[in-house]
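Two proteins follow. First one:
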Amino acid sequence: MKSQDIVILLKLVSLEHEERQGLLYPKTDHDGPFSVRGLESSLGISKTEVNASIKRSVSSGLATKVHDGGRAKPNRRNLCNFIVHGLKFVFPATPGAMTRGVPTAFAAPPLKNLLISAGEYIYVWPFAKGKNMGQSVEPLFKSVPEAAVKDACLYEYLALVDAIRLGNQRETGLAVERISERLLKK
């Protein structure tokens, strides 16, 4: 398992959400948003890595292959269980130096203003085009800040994941509640 596997699975969940909302009309050719090329384009992860990631996710039970076009479909229950119970141990996050970037964890939209922070600094993914200053947090994959800026739904998922990776009991509990609602509702 690699950290980009979680990013790719959450992107697939985001695409499913857009598809259900009628905001996405997937193409049946090889360049649709669910294709390896489509994922490469939207996430900045090479086709080879996307393909290997999907294979790892299928073999670990975090995804299945759907027969219509062979696209990968996240197993939302297993993914949620892994994020809630295992992610912070497998891919821990440690706040770093002050930098400019994209807000994450408790400073990002799904949790912003819900918790009163004990500190004055927010957490950010380092990103040259970022408008906020805060303590750096290494994202699950280097292209996460740019991918998150392009996709608001993916951004929420990844920020909640970081809240779980970084938070204390109260913060983690709120993030778990929010991500469970989003992942487990159909």
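Second one, unrelated to the first:
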Amino acid sequence: MGIISWILLGLVAGAIAKALRPGRDPQGCIVTMIIGVVGAVIGGYIARFLGWDGVDGFNLYSILIATAGAVLALFIWAAVTGNRNRGV
């Protein structure tokens, strides 16, 4: 898969993950895209680790794996950055 495919898959996965995750997220579109691409990579590695096929193309299976990774990445992002604006 080329870099353009990873970016497009990350866009789709990041948008779906942001829609699935409850609550208000303060990050914008650029951060969501980056988290989506990181999530696609994380999802692919986790899938390979479990013995499944990784993210290998722009298909439904890859979108599901990348979205699961993006949701995980969003939870990690929220845990890391969640306490910065409290108390202001």
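SUMMARY FIELD: Residues 3-81 form one domain. The chain has a mean pLDDT of 78.
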